[in-house]
Fold:
Amino acid sequence: MSLLEQLPQAIFNVIALDLEAEDLATLMLTSHRLNRLASCDELWIEKISADFGDREHIIDVLADAGVDIAELVYQSTDLVPWRRQQLDIETDTDDDDCNDDSSDCSSAIPTTSHRYSFTGVGMRCYRDRFIRVFPRSGDDTVNNIKRSEETLEAVKHMLRDGPRASSDVFAEAAYRLVFVQEYYPNSAECYYLWALICFMLNAFKPSLSFLNIGQSINDDHAPLKELAKEVQSIVAGAYGTGNQVPLLDGAGSGPSVHLAKALAIIFQRLDSDRDGVLNAAELSHMVRQTNGQAPPPAVIAQIIGSFGGQLQSKSGRMVQGWNLASLTEFYIAQTLDDPSETRKDLAKFGFDPATLKQA
Structure:
C-alpha cells in the first residue's frame, strides 16, 4: 500500500484540493483505497470553493459590512450546493461506495468534522458547477454571458443612489452578484461591486478584502484600482499608520475608544454653560477654534440642522444645538471624508494628533 493510500481522510483532502479535478478523477482509478479516499463528498464540496471561489468567505465579508445574504443564498434552488449549504442526505460511513446515480445535488453533505460521506453527491455537485463555468455548448456560453451582463447592469442601476440606498437594496444587489459569480468565478467586476457596496456602507476593511481578491484576479481592472486607492487612503488615515491610534472602531461606523474619549473632553470644554447642549454661540466658538475665523449665523444654522436640532438641555429647556452624539456624528462624517482634517482639529483642541492624548 502506498503512502498516499495510508493517509487519513482529513489529510488526503488537504492534499487533494491542490490537484486538478481531472487528475483526481484519474487517481480514483488506481486502487480501491484511493477511489474511496477521492470519493469523499466533503472533499468535492470543498473543492467547489477552492476552484470556483469561496462563497462562504463572500457571505462572511458581506456580513461584516452589515449586508446579510446568507438566508437568500441558502434558500436558493438555482445555485449548485457548496460548503456550508444546508443539505439533506443520509450519511454513509461504511466501507461500501455509494454509486446510486439517482441522488442529486439537492442532497446533503453532513457537517460534522469527524465523519465523512461517500455518496457520490459531492462529485456530482462539482460536476454541475464545472459545467456552469465551462458550458458544453457555444449557445450556453452566449446565454450565460448575456445573462451575466444584464445582471451586472441591473446591479449598477440598483446602486445608483449610493449610500442613500436601503439595506434591502444593498442585500439584493449583493445577492444578484452571486449568480454572476456562479458562472464566472473569476469576474473582477463582481468583486469590485461587492467592494463598492461595502464602501458605500463605510465598511472599509470588508471593502479592502474584496478589492484584494478582485485585483488578484485582474490587476488591470481600472475601477478596482481607483476604489482601492481611495479606500486605502481612508483606512490609512482613519485607522492610523506608525504610532497613530485609530479614529474609527473596527466596523468603521463609530468612533474608536481614543476618539470617543477625546470628543467627550472637547464637548465638556465647549459646553461653557454646562447644560449638555452646544448652542449657537458655543458652536461658533468651536468653528472659530478649528478654522481660525467665526462663521456667519447662516452657517451655524446649517451645521445645527445637519447634525443636531432642537434638543433638551439638562435644565429641561429646549435649545437649538448639538449634544455629544451630534459632535461625534460630525467627526465620524469628517473622518470618513478626510481623516487628516479630524487629526488637525484634535491638535487645535490640544490633543496629540497621533496618540489622541492631551498634549
User: Anything to note?
Assistant: The chain has a mean pLDDT of 88. The first strand starts at residue 309 and ends at 312. Residues 99 and 120 are 6 Å apart (CA to CA). The chain has 18 helices and two strands.
